[in-house]
Amino acid sequence: MREFMHYITNAFYGATGWNDDNTYKELNTTARELIDFPLPRGLRLTLSSLATPHFATSYQLGSVDIVDGSISYLYTSVPLKNIAAKSETIPLPALLQSFRRLHDLGSRAQPCRLPTDTVQASVIPLTPTTHESQTAALPTPTETSKVGSSLLYGRLYLPQSLLEGLIIKRVSPALQVQLSAVSDQSLRNGGTMLGLVQYDKGKYGIEGLASTDGGLLGVRGLYNFGGDTSSSAIAPPLGGATSDTTGGERERIYGRFSAGGELYYGTLNKSGGMSLGGRFSTLPAHKGSPLTAALTINPLMGNISATYAVLAKDYCSLATRMEFNVYSYESEWSVGMELWSNRRPAGFLLGAAPPPPRPRERSFEEKLAWIPVGGSDTDKVTRDFAQPGLSEAKEDKYLGVLKARLDQRLRIGLLWEGRAKSLIFSLGTGIDLHKLGEPFRSLGLEVQYSS
Amino acid sequence: MAFNFNWSPLTADERFYERARDLLTTALNKSPKPPIIVDDILVTEFNLGSVPPDLEILEIGDLAEDRFRGIFKMCYSGDAFLTLKTRVQANPLNTYLSAKPSFTSPQPLAAASSLTIPLQITLSEIKLSAFIILVFSKQKGLTIVFRNDPLESLKVSSTFDSIQFVRDYLQRTIEGKLRDLFMDELPAIIHRLSLQLWCPDQLPKEGDELKDDSEPAAVNPLATPPLDAVDAKGHLVDPTEMPSLSLDGNPEIQSLFSQRNLKGFAGLSKITSSLFAPSLKDSLFRAWAGQSDRVDGNSPPLSTPSLQRSASYNGTPHTYTFSDSGTQDNGHFPSRPSLVSLNSATTGLSLGSGRHSKTGRKKKTRVLNLRKKKDSASTSATTSTATSEAGDTASETVSTPGAMSEPIIPHLIVEEPEEELTNKVRFSTSPREQPAARSPVSEEAIKREDPPAVKRDVPITLQEQQPQSARATEKAKAEPTPLSADPSRQWKRSGPQSDTSSVILEQALIMKMAGEIARRVYDEKARNPSFWEDREDSPPPAYEAS
To answer: Which InterPro entries does this UniProt record tie to the protein (chain A) (predicted)?
Structure first.
């Protein structure tokens, strides 16, 4: 589960039209989130609220060994008016879904495009049709408010007296500066600071960073080609504006290639690191199963990592990762899965699940008819009759998600997340199959309420 | 009197290295490891080598059968080595990130991917120079404290010897780690080892198993003589002559006892805390020995050597009551053989009672009964404040019934020495177990034939103190020494020969020296506080004086 403040920050990116996917850091985020999702430990309660469109607060109370907590505040200069912040209306995929679809490139190159496009695309990526309808409802922020916009965030962890601070400042349409700092007395010099300069030109994105810790300097960049970037003039239309004329072309896999690299050097400790990577990812306009494949190579350490993630069905995503080290011959694999469910969590307590909105007899006939037909036809028909039902039905369609992972050391992570009434909960456990005597390594429950 | 320090008998016990390796491994993995070490540190090889350290006795504060306190100067440059195995993280960015908060992490994508490399480190050519304070008490085990940083130099060879930078780093890091180990961990390890050897009942577990293999060694000191046995004049005793030596009559045999056989020694004189039991006529000692817990039901066989020794040596029959809680509870005091057999019969019972009484463990007052009348059981008792582990309430309460039955005992015990004089030590109740119990002894006898070990072992005795102290004097002269150093040394050397009048002189001198040292220490501290943190090899001033 993404934290509320993370969700608000994503909303800020959306409102200012920043594409936070167009960076080398996010090259294999989809697979990483499907596999390395964090498991809750102990009991954790979060109360959050977007009090005004500019201001959000969040209080967290947890007990793992001792009772601890945190207080966080967030201020944005951009009003986040149409963000669903209440936990009963907040779209679950925005908080819970791991599979990310690529955003459109060059949203800043074409100022006419609505910046909220990207918000909605990231928030509700399950339905390509949704953001068409919601975009119309959203007001368009002016170009001037985008450029000067900034976000301030601070968080104080209480017994530890650890302070986190973050400033995001949009300098120009293509340039964004982030400054994050941690103050903690256990750290050397009492704290660290990280400065990040991000330059996103659509076709490529470059980041430069500097950390006070060891004087680390870093550069990373990502270059996109193929797919929507290759055809210079005609970007394929998005989402529901599917026309039959281009349908034949999209039978092929339609996606974007990205390649990039990163380079770090610690000026004080005289050490460094680097890696290279490439990715192929389908674009939202692709009509088959969305997939993402990424390969990263660390030539210094001899590490090769390949990830593959696919949204097999609307409700099911799968990811695998293989790692191999050519120097030490160590290898590692892990798989992750995400399964969405429209059942009510704890249905026996809260009542029976609501009947699915889809008429049964219709779908049965359809199924009978579809079996011999090809996939594209199926898709079209589904889309056709799903069109009127639409957004609110999609919103309520999924009430929970089961995430699971398994790795080479036979450790299983299970996470069940969903919404119960107006609470968003996350229940997870870690299981070690090697220690069958006491297999449960961790157990945790997180409950989040926001208004 | 001579001290005989044995080095190689440690290696004769093949389980010693196993135990030491285990203890080292746990000690190394106990403290939180730096992020560069990604696996457990395993001690794969450990050898103390054959070259013993040079020991110089600086001061003996307390000396008794069951306790010892002294200060040594130890120099070591031998062939001991230690091999460790672990895995290290070779990616500096990975270790860099692991200690940093994630909020300000640069979050590299793959630049921080891990590359773990198996690493083998061999430490050899260890040179030590240390001032050691050694405190031994039979009940509390062996405590060693290093007064200074003992490590002079060592050679670190590893998998990465070809890379200069890594080699230097490892050398530096390991030296620092070893200093910590010597100052903090090693005393703890030695203490635990000694507890296993002498009083396993202090350890929470594995008592029975250890008891079994420590018993044969404790039975007869002569049966397991040290490798480099010397007689009272410091000459090496031919191992082949060893059987001809008997325990009776010859005071020189004392020097045959090595460190290893201190266990056997320790059982000797619960009574007077001296090496030789005084010939008190018609006296009866009741020793609630500290070992009674350890030997549970089998204490009579264990204590027979000391019985036999003191009886035969003094030639005057006096009696002891070695009673453990098991026999006392049952109240059996028939003739000796039947007592032994009863012991075996009630072993399970006495074991149980021994375990049970441990819960009520408290400080014990050892009762020494020197009396002629029977009814003076409680009045003439002198107490020693030794803190014995065996001091449980059960055994104390039953001491009075034991006193009631004492008229039976003398003539029963007297026949025991005759039996023992033929050197047939009763190991256990059943005679067929005797060969089994003897077998480690014979193995050691075979090992004793190993000539290089005998040659290399340098016994450090008090008689040999002269040349070493002379060397130390030269060394001390090279360094800035206190004014009183040389006179005191010379005086001390002649001390044992001098008569009682010199005791006063000694006390006065010691007082003066102590005052001088204290003043110098204080001045030094006031002048240079950091000196006490980073003193390296120079011994503390207190020891330069002597």
So the answer is: Mdm10
